């Protein structure tokens, strides 16, 4: 069984989410990678070193510079004659491309898998992660998105895959890149951080969020996250959001400050190894999953904690 993994990258380096997808694909059979980009030869060379990969397909064309799903999906479909499954990291971009590939192949997409039980059998979360379903696909071609927190990351060295240039399908003419506003930070990326400090609506304002959460995160060398309520209130941009409708994370330490613990938030972080909750409501649902809970006024506790670190 040959599996094609779409490589998420920024035309400069492979993103971490791809590595978990490679691990999942390796449990299905032979792993091939697709690097679609513009000026992405360096990314292809980096991808070729990933352990367990036997071939890297490189589609280098300006049409793929920004990873537009309308352009990338037909390219993947054109390569599926020689592959049995297409695998994507379950990121924003991966989830944008995968359904289009499934539709063009006329197959059912298998989303957010947690494990590979066999060549056509997988587990995935349902009901916001409160239950795990085992699903079996009878489709000849599989289209799968992989939850990055459920699989170990493949080693970035030790591989010696060949790189093969492939002809792209070009610009489909259905969409165009206009601009991107990307928040730049010296802190770790949220989905790959070992420590995350997240704030909720209880912080009261964007000013309080930045004044309390960011100094604590900086002391811990942590990434900064937020609940959906904090994002909806305009405290921080939506790329900070952790949860079922945000980013799925599983750091070594997750610090939840002023977060009540709605189901959709828990679905995005409950696989964290150690969860620390700070909340004045002792009945808040977050305490049901927390390893360490501190009941009290966050406006007093957080500055004191930051000062003592």
Task: Itemize the secondary structure elements and their pairings.
Elements: E1 2-6, H1 16-26, E2 30-37, H2 41-48, E3 53-60, H3 69-79, E4 85-89, H4 92-105, E5 109-113, E6 115-118, E7 121-126, E8 131-136, E9 142-146, E10 162-165, E11 195-199, H5 206-220, E12 223-226, H6 228-232, E13 253-257, H7 263-269, E14 274-279, E15 292-295, H8 298-308
Parallel strand pairs: 1-2, 1-4, 2-3, 3-10, 4-9, 5-9, 11-12, 11-13, 13-14, 14-15
Antiparallel strand pairs: 6-7, 7-8
Helix pairs in contact: 3-4, 5-8
The gyration radius over C-alpha positions equals: 20 Å
End-to-end CA span:
51 Å
Q: What is the averaged pLDDT score?
A: 94
Which class best fits the helix and strand makeup? alpha/beta
The unreliable regions are none
Number of continuous helical runs: 8
- What amount of the residues lies in strands? 25-35%
Family: Belongs to the ETF alpha-subunit/FixB family.
Pfam families: ETF, ETF_alpha
Protein name: Electron transfer flavoprotein subunit alpha/FixB family protein
Keywords: Electron transport, Transport
